[in-house]
Amino acid sequence: MAGVKQAREGAVGILTLDEPASLNAMTPDLLGALADAIGEMTEDEGIRALILTGAGRGFCSGQNLKASEALGEDIAAGVMRFYWPTFKALRECRVPVVVAVNGVAAGGGFSLAMAGDMIVAARSASFIQVFSRIALVPDLGSTWLLPRL
Asked: Any residues with CB less than 8 A from the CB of 74 and at least 6 apart, and which?
């Protein structure tokens, strides 16, 4: 599956964001592949937990701003169409989702990490909300999830 690798170790499904050249930056294609992978993994009754991680030196650097035109003119509608299904799949997953953060989790990538049930952070992990630096309001659940975590 483009952008997402799937593996299994016993009853644990492992999903790896696999666009290391962009620090696994979010695009509609990457998040669509992730939503599909979550669905495939959790259809298997033998899966009892999921691990979500990132390939390379980062977990997820947030929105790929070079690919933001794919969201369309109505950015909010684009986020709901392309991004929300993935976040919903994580939040409503029938099994626990452990997010293994191995590097930067920035902006929407930080939001993605918070959508899981538990975050395990490597010493190399860093978390940053960068929305104000690019004149945006935090999205993808950040304003609700961050204060509760």
From this structure: none
